[in-house]
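Limitations
The structure tokens in this dataset are predictions for the assembled complex, not deposited experimental models. Users should treat interface geometry with appropriate caution, especially where small molecules or nucleic acid strands are included. An illustrative entry is reproduced here so readers can see what is and is not provided.
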Amino acid sequence: MPRFVWRPRALVQLTLLRFREFVREPEALFWGVVFPILLSAGLGVAFRNQPAETVRVAGVSPAVVSALRQDPLLIVEDVGADRARELLRAGKVALVAEPGGDRNVVYLFDDTNPEARTARMLADRALQRAGGRVDPVATSDTLTRDVGARYIDFLVPGLVGMGIMGNSIWGLGFAIVDARRRKLMKRIVATPMPRHHYLLSFLLWRVLLLGFEVAIPVAFGVLVFGVPLRGSLLQLAMLCLLGSFSFSALGLLIASRAKTIEAVSGIMNLVMVPMWILSGVFFSSQRFPDAVQPVIRALPLTALIDALRANMLQGAGIGQLLPQVAAMGVCLVVGFSLALWLFRWR
Amino acid sequence: MPVSAPATPLVVRGLKKRYKDVVAVDGLDFDVRPGECFGLLGPNGAGKTTTIEICEGLTAPDEGVVEVLGLRWESDAAAIRERLGIQLQDTQLSDKITVLETVQLFRSFFREGTTPAEVIGLVQLEDKQHARVGALSGGQKQRLALACALIGNPDLLFLDEPTTGLDPQARRQVWDLVEAFKRRGRTIVLTTHYMDEAERLCERVAIVDHGKVIARGTPRELVASIGVEHVLEFAAGPNVDLAAIGRLAGVQDVRASDTLVALQVTALHQAVPALLEELERQRAPLTELRTHSATLEDVFVTLTGRHLRDA
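Predicted assembly:
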């Protein structure tokens, strides 16, 4: 093993090289900085909390229509029988209530449509009450729309974790394989520069970029959607740094032998796609069967996202997140050691 | 113990390297003297690049000894690298950064060296110093690669096929640079499959084929060694009696290719009239006739029966 040689000027220049290659590549800038903002804005708008939804229904006789209108959640169309069926077929109303024989009412609706089933319950309640039904139990509602329990609160830490994984693995994987393919790596290791400086420059670059890729989506979530930041910001930064380093180690491992961009892309997908699906970026990983939960919890992305959510939403300290920290630490140490052992410098 | 005086910039003894079932280098020996330009001349696949990369410390040999500037790779790699200038075959530098940024990057790798501005001036890229590497022509990229090789102010410069793929003007610019470096008393090892390049730049040449040195010496000595001064090539249709021509005065050897017949001759003033007379007698229509002084290419043809380019 060569002894550790410190050449700060080379490290600065190599990190500058990373920076220049990044900012002069418009695509990298878009995917690394602009895209996470667009994604959280888009998802935030799509899943914003809305007032309780109203349902459109059609009533076919004046008595039915006036009874239905007693319920504020029902928007009632007062139309003839033929027109009512037309509206139902076109999906403009979820249910048609028309008089049968005697004092009966017939509901027409699709029972596989949840909205139609809701309409059936609301319409029936309104008609029964208008007919004189009295509810035997008195009830009242307390609404729980807490900050920190909304979908956007769940989503922002997931997107931050996904961004850290993607940028670390793509950033290292492509840059290393590209340098190897161009024989630039071979040329650089033929100089007296200590080899570990080359790898160190990637880690340094990740730290610098981490500020952007975490700060921007978090600030966006906090300012636009009021996502809470209940934990220590310093610990949040440390968790992000640990996550970034463990994914950089994975990126290094993925790129340690690949000679072509195609080969490295394939391995990256193999590593990242399962984590996108299993690690609970967009929905809770608890939905997967209990049998696979230990595997899911061992994935570094699950560890990172769980830790970020616990910090931001519940204000948990690192002391409560030791399993997650350990999972990322193992990934970092094992990944980095394996990568150094396998790494092909030409 | 050094196998020779430390003043010898490069000593190679019994070098062997095998890749799976291919023997790339099969027992190479050579010495490079201070201040000379030493050429490894041979066809593609002869083992030149493997040899030079072993000397550069990029590939480990299976057998043999390499001593660079009196030092060994196993024990003194860091010290050797500080004193080497290296240009590899087809390295693509990063397209996104400028000429100046590239040279600054390489300067930072060396403890000592010249200034980026000086090296950029030397390779005549001042006008392009703020241009991105991706926007340079092939010749400019090659001069930039030379600038990166020279930035550490090396004692020994390795050039692997420095002009392959360049147009004639760009080749001449690279040659001028190599000669300028040589004038400053530095030592150069270059590989090439262009005989004109070796003849122009190299004090001494080792001709390499199938991983072995098959001839070595100054270009002049090598050309003289085949005992032929001139090569006479002609085309005279398909029905020429080559045996009769081989018996003409001053003709040493006859080789026929698809269209041309090449004669190696010692006395041009005897051979040309004799050839014309013989073709007249055979009633063969002469359509082409040319002569040139024997070159390293002819040395290679004489030794291997093949041409450098298509070997």
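Some entries come with short summary sentences. For this one: Residues 60 and 298 of chain B are 34 Å apart (CA to CA).
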